[in-house]
């Protein structure tokens, strides 16, 4: 801020000095303020946009635009120059026309720092003269994530392909970046635009289009109607791929809603609303809407909710979502939520003016901007009085800027005992309205309004009785809507089933067929609720039963479900009732129904049927499943937080009394003090707030405000705050709950602000907020956090489960001389009033789970880099180790750029810090923006550093952006982070073999399961609240994901992943959400077991909910066929399986196989219910080709012999991928003792000569094991000839080519036992010095750790000084390993393994 102001002063000084008669001022932001001697009147603009992806072939002009503008202006005061605004444009031609032909432009100049363009005229223009001047210019479409000016916005086709569109968003003073103009709001002019755009795209601007000309089939030019007078920032331009639907209001106002083609179906709702209600407004106010057209445009990347540009209203849409509610403009969560400055609220404020147009705009805005429909709640307030209010639905959208769920609602109702319809308004800012009536009123008469109505039980009964008597006076639409709304309410709300009976009785025999069906539907739903709510003998239940028998005597039986029965066979063609019947059936057999529906979805072709099936499947999802909602409540563990209150934002101030720095130590030393303000939403009525806290001393809790639901989103209206106090609070150490009891019950949808003051002790057990040594063990200490899974509650009272995402604003107060870090970028820092303390404030985070919060205070330094997009990356380490961070720094920059590209989602915060700490329970922790590493996992250059850094960065998307709902699905985080790590290798080294790296993970998992383990969806809660999962969530999770990749193909898989991340960002997911994304991109015709359509949910069940894996046994039947069977093998020393068994220890196994010599890998299925799989192949075949599958293969001896012959004949030829070879070796290794050694020997020996070091190594190990077990003699001590044959100045590769095999373990033995230690040690140091490949370096280092330390030190000092730091660090790390906790389930374990 200070810097900026200085610049302005300097500029002003320069101006004054130059003493020209420049009629210019400099505005606050340093740009030119125009003089008033020229007044623009009109702009004629021709603008051509070179947008790729359409008819023209992109060339050097791609992603640019060029234009001509003719500006007509009046001269107000005499002048010899014209100054106007321009920014980032190349003005390449200028011309002027006046009445005096002698006047021309002598020169023009652009002054970038003032954003000005000065045209010098050959002579002075006098007042009253008219002038027109022409400018030609070029510019670039912006793509810097700022969503400002004329910029690129992206939409996605259903196949995931990206489509580029260009749209404007003119913040004040940015129109000048599109067109040179007088860019101040005071200069209002008319505008006439012609847009030239690629054929295939659509051009839109403020005026209605007049005519379009097409040239060469490549470019089209549309001329638009002249606008009314407006300021430059009201200009809007769009070019891109959209379609529209339109409607005309009586008087001819055209309304169009544009959206990308994929979302076009969703615009009907907005269109209807705009239409119905502009009409309504015209009638109500008796004035017609003034403009010819009103276009709404839904754009995905848009920084505010909507603009009010005239005639063309641009909205932010969402990525396509599976939403049942039809609305186009589901808001996308903003990336930088700023709670204090909601653009939405500001916009609403600006709309609340008194003109008709703005009322319509407000109305249209409210209806089109938000997802969902309003629900109108009707209740009785007296014998002939009802109250009508709107329900504010916030549960699915907790962010205050994310949604604004209120509407201006036209309330249509029938007048008492006549069929006249009346209209009144429930405006968005009214709490409620009252209506008087002697009869029960039915709201939303004739179904005019697009909203739901919910009555009280009492009113439903009264309406039912009214309908029994006077059914005829209500229109069929009225009755239909009443019943349909009721059907939904009866499901979703806890309504009393008996209250619907009169209504059903009154209408089930109605004259109108649609009404009859709606009544039947309500009957089906209400009767189910009745059986749940009431005793079987209850007369209401009986009443429903009677009606059911009468109206549903033809309920289909389950027998019809099987075999080839089609949807129509089972349910007939009455589409309305099918839904009802199915919902009754779902109740009785969920699994069977689900399976059948999935089958039909794949096989049916009738779009109508597919729509019904789609809707039903949507309902069956766990999250929406009615059965789950209505059936007996899921047993909730007592230590889980209630879901009545959800946090929105935390404001944390934390003071850390860390000794060893500037302040004077006292009794507060080694403690921390906290004050946290929490803003939360009340979702269900409650008289208490329950959150997590443990080992903290709560000093005080204050309620700041409780705001009524209707006003809850307008935080500044504090007069509506309620008088609520805290009666007491209680800490439960068993449940780790802090329960705050309130003086009264808070209504749902209220907002509550409260503050907790507390104190805690910095821990020493590597959990929560704890002490860590600095690396030289000096007196100074650092404090750092490790919260996953449940230790945030040790530092700050919070809603400490992943589902409770919120933003965090953190301020740290820390001893002078320490560095303080948190998730957000540092904003402000300075001394506090307290001597010896500094404060540092950090930017508010994005919405995230509490386990990702992080804090560090201590003595560190950093090195820094910046990604190409400007994300700042720093690695912090102890000052004496700061030179060892370079490798991690480089890896992280490349990886962030790589992942951004791969996922199509930018890293959403300004910075990523890594911190190396000495005492850390895991390898690293992915806290959003502040990643903490054990120092050996980030310092220096090693495979561990590489893989850990990439893994943690992958979590920034998988885990941080999209988070599991609870810890049972932690495998989604870890499986994906592990799966993505080898992609990271390819960013660093494009040659890296991703598949081969992934087989290493796979083998680790398979080995891990040779002992009893649990499924990857199980978790255990420890006494201190920590939740642990099996370590297999990494390797098995990753291997499972990889199988899906190979089933659906890499392209489809990547599209699904992008969709999944986009669709669930800032939200929580269950595994089903992932499957839904995969299903969406699963190629048509993907087949699963038994030739049936592939069912991913079924496939996943056995792999994720069962422990263990199948072993596939292979044997020949005859010359042209082989037989495969699956078995689960028992663990070592275990005789029976004890753990869960959801699929009878069987799996649906995708069998990938390849005939040696062939390039293709084929896929067949061995289903979990199949006895065997017969493959018709001649000759040997390799099962589990490319090691795609998470299983082992055991061939018969005879078959191994066949393979051996094949291997011997082919020798080293590359007939199998490296992944296939390593799989074969790993499996052989695992089955040694069961296989006849002779039958496998040729295979192993051939592979011991492979080009790939890891394969050679593995083959050597296998040979050694064979030797041990069979007494067979093989010379495996291959290092001896190596050292004899090589000379000291040869590289490792040169040496190793002279011998047959190399095993690194042998090096170690050799180094230890060799009498001339020095020579061997020197070989290794020589190689280390020149070796580029990381894994080779690791081997040499490992071997060096076996060397005599005296010899090694001497050589390092005398001849290899440049290697000293690296070698010593590695040795230190080796020693440190012992100090690490022996067994951990998190990031620690996974990096310790290798093939
Ligand atoms: Zn991880």
UniProtKB/TrEMBL annotation:
Zinc keyword on record: yes
Cofactor: binding comment: Binds 1 zinc ion per subunit.
Key words of the record: Aminopeptidase, Hydrolase, Metal-binding, Metalloprotease, Protease, Signal, Zinc
Active site per database record: 952 (proton acceptor)
HEAT repeat segments: 1240-1278
Signal peptide residue numbers: 1-18
GO MF term (any one): zinc ion binding
Ligand binding (Zn(2+)): 951, 955, 974
GO process annotations (BP): peptide catabolic process; proteolysis
Swiss-Prot/TrEMBL site (Transition state stabilizer) positions: 1034
Domain Aminopeptidase N-like N-terminal: 39-231, 647-852
Keyword Signal (UniProt): yes
Stored Pfam families: Peptidase_M1, Peptidase_M1_N
Entry GO terms, CC: cytoplasm; extracellular space; membrane
UniProt-listed InterPro entries: Aminopeptidase_N-like_N, Aminopeptidase_N-like_N_sf, ARM-type_fold, HEAT_type_2, M1_APN-typ, Peptidase_M1, Peptidase_M1_aminopeptidases, Peptidase_M1_dom
PANTHER family, per the entry: AMINOPEPTIDASE, PROTEASE M1 ZINC METALLOPROTEASE
Family label: Belongs to the peptidase M1 family.
Protein name (database record): Aminopeptidase
Origin species: Caenorhabditis japonica
Organism lineage: Eukaryota, Metazoa, Ecdysozoa, Nematoda, Chromadorea
């Amino acid at each position: 801020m200070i810097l900026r102001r200085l610049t302005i002063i300097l500029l002003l000084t320069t101006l004054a000095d130059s003493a020209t008669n420049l009629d210019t001022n400099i505005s606050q932001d340093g740009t030119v303020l125009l003089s008033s001697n020229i007044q623009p009147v009109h702009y004629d603009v021709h603008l051509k946009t070179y947008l790729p992806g359409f008819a023209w072939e992109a060339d050097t002009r791609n992603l640019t635009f060029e234009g001509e503008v003719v500006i007509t202006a009046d001269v107000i005061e005499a002048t010899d120059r014209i100054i106007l605004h321009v920014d980032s444009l190349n003005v390449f031609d200028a011309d002027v026309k006046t009445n005096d032909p002698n006047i021309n432009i002598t020169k023009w100049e652009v002054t970038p720092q003032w954003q000005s363009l000065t045209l010098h005229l050959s002579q002075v223009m006098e007042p009253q003269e008219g002038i027109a001047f022409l400018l030609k210019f070029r510019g670039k479409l912006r793509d810097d994530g700022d969503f400002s000016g004329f910029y690129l916005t992206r939409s996605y086709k259903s196949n995931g392909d990206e489509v580029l569109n260009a749209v404007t968003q003119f913040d004040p003073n940015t129109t000048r970046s599109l067109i040179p103009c007088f860019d101040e709001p005071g200069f209002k002019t008319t505008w006439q635009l012609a847009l030239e755009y690629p054929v295939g795209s659509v051009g839109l601007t403020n005026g209605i289009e007049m005519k379009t000309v097409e040239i060469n089939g490549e470019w089209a030019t549309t001329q638009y109607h002249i606008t009314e007078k407006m300021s430059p920032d009201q200009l809007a331009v769009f070019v891109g791929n959209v379609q529209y639907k339109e409607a005309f209001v009586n008087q001819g106002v055209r309304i169009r809603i544009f959206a990308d083609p994929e979302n076009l179906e969703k615009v009907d709702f907005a269109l209807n609303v705009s239409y119905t209600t502009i009409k309504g407004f015209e009638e109500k106010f008796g004035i017609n809407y003034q403009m010819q057209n009103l276009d709404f445009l839904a754009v995905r990347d848009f920084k505010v909710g909507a603009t009010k540009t005239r005639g063309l209203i641009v909205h932010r849409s969402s990525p396509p979502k599976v939403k049942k509610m039809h609305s186009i403009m589901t808001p996308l969560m903003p990336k930088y939520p700023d709670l204090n400055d909601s653009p939405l609220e500001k916009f609403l404020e600006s709309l609340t003016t008194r003109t008709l147009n703005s009322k319509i705009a407000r109305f249209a805005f409210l209806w089109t901007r938000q997802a969902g429909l309003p629900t109108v709640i009707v209740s009785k307030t007296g014998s002939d009085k009802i109250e009508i209010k709107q329900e504010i639905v916030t549960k699915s959208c907790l962010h205050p800027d994310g949604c604004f769920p209120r509407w201006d609602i036209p309330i249509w109702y029938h007048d008492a005992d006549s069929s006249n319809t009346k209209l009144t308004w429930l405006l968005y800012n009214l709490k409620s309205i009252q209506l008087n009536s002697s009869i029960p009123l039915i709201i939303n008469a004739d179904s005019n309004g697009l909203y739901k109505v919910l009555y009280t039980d009492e009113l439903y009964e009264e309406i039912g009785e009214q309908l029994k008597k006077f059914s005829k006076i209500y229109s069929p639409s009225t009755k239909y809507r009443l019943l349909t709304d009721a059907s939904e309410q009866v499901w979703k709300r806890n309504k009393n089933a008996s209250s619907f009976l009169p209504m059903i009785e009154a209408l089930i025999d109605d004259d109108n067929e649609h009404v009859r069906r709606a009544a039947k539907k309500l009957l089906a739903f209400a009767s189910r609720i009745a059986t749940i709510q009431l005793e079987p003998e209850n007369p209401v239940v009986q009443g429903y039963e009677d009606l059911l028998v009468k109206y549903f005597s033809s309920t289909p039986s389950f027998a019809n479900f099987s075999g080839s029965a089609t949807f129509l066979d089972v349910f007939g063609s009455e589409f309305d009732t099918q839904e009802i019947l199915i919902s009754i059936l779902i109740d009785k057999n969920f699994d069977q129904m689900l399976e059948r529906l999935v089958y039909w979805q794949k096989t049916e072709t009738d779009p109508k049927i597919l729509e019904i099936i789609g809707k039903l499947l949507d309902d069956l999802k766990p999250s929406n499943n009615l059965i789950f909602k209505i059936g007996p409540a899921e047993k909730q563990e007592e230590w889980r937080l209630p879901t009545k209150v959800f946090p929105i934002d935390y404001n944390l101030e934390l003071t850390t009394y860390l000794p060893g720095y500037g302040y004077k130590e006292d009794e507060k030393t080694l403690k921390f003090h906290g004050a946290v303000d929490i803003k939360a939403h009340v979702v269900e009525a409650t008289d208490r707030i329950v959150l997590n806290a443990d080992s903290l001393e709560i000093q005080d809790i204050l309620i700041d405000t409780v705001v009524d639901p209707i006003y809850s989103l307008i935080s500044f209206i504090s007069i509506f705050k309620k008088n609520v106090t805290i009666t007491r609070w209680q800490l439960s150490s068993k449940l780790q709950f802090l329960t705050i009891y309130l003086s009264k019950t808070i209504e749902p949808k209220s907002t509550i602000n409260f503050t907790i003051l507390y104190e805690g002790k910095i821990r020493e057990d590597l959990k929560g907020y704890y002490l860590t040594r600095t690396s030289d063990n000096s007196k100074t200490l650092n404090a750092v956090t490790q919260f996953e899974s449940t230790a945030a509650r040790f530092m700050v009272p919070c809603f400490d489960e992943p589902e409770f995402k919120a933003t965090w604003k953190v301020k740290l107060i820390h001893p002078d001389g320490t560095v303080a870090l948190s998730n957000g970028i540092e904003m402000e820092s300075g001394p506090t009033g307290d001597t010896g303390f500094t404060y540092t404030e950090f930017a508010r985070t994005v919405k995230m789970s509490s386990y990702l919060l992080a804090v560090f205070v201590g003595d560190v330094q950093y090195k820094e880099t910046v990604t190409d997009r400007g994300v700042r990356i720093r690695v912090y380490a102890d000052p004496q180790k700061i030179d060892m961070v370079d490798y991690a720094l480089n890896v992280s920059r490349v990886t962030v750029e790589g992942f951004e590209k791969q996922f199509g989602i930018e890293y959403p915060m300004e910075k990523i810090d890594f911190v190396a700490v000495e005492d850390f329970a895991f390898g690293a922790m992915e806290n959003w923006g502040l990643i903490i590493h054990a120092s050996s996992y980030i310092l220096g250059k090693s495979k561990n550093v590489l893989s850990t850094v990439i893994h943690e960065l992958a979590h920034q998307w998988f885990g941080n952006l999209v988070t599991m709902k609870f810890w049972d699905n932690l495998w989604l985080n870890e499986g994906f982070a592990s799966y993505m790590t080898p992609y990271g290798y390819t960013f660093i080294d494009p040659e890296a073999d991703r598949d081969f790296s992934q087989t290493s993970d796979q083998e680790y998992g398979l080995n891990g399961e040779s002992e009893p383990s649990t499924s990857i969806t199980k978790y255990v809660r420890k006494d201190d609240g920590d939740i642990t999962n099996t370590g297999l969530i990494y390797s098995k999770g990753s291997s499972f994901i990889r199988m899906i990749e190979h089933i659906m193909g890499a392209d489809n898989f990547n599209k699904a992943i992008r969709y999944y991340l986009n669709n669930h960002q800032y939200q929580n997911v269950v595994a089903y959400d992932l499957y839904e994304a995969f299903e969406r991109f699963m190629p048509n015709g993907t087949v699963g077991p038994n030739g049936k359509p592939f069912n991913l949910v079924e496939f996943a069940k056995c792999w994720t909910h069962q422990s263990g894996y199948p072993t596939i046994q292979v044997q020949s039947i005859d010359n042209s066929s082989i037989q495969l069977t699956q078995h689960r093998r028992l663990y070592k020393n275990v005789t029976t399986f004890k753990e869960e068994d959801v699929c009878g220890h069987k799996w649906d196994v995708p069998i990938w196989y390849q005939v040696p010599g062939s390039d293709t890998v084929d896929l067949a299925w061995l289903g979990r219910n199949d006895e065997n799989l017969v493959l018709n192949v001649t000759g040997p075949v390799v099962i589990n080709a490319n090691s795609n599958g998470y299983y082992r293969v055991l061939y018969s001896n005879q078959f191994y012999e066949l393979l051996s012959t094949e291997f011997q004949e082919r020798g080293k030829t590359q007939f199998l991928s490296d992944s296939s070879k390593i799989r074969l070796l790993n499996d052989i290794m695992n089955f040694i003792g069961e296989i006849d050694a002779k039958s496998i020997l040729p295979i192993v020996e051939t592979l011991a000569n492979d080009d790939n070091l890891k394969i050679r190594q593995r083959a050597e190990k296998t040979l050694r094991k064979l030797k041990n077990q069979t007494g067979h003699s093989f010379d495996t001590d291959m290092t001896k000839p190596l050292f004899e044959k090589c000379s000291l100045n040869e590289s490792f590769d040169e040496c190793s080519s002279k011998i047959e095999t190399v095993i690194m373990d042998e090096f170690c033995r050799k180094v230890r036992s060799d009498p001339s230690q020095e020579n061997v040690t020197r070989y290794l140091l020589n190689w280390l010095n020149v070796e580029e490949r990381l894994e080779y370096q690791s081997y040499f280092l490992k071997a060096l750790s076996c060397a005599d330390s005296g010899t090694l030190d001497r050589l390092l000092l005398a001849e290899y000084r440049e290697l000293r730091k690296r070698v010593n660090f590695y040795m230190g790390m080796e020693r440190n390993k012992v100090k690490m906790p022996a067994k951990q389930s998190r990031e620690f374990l996974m990096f310790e393994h290798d093939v």
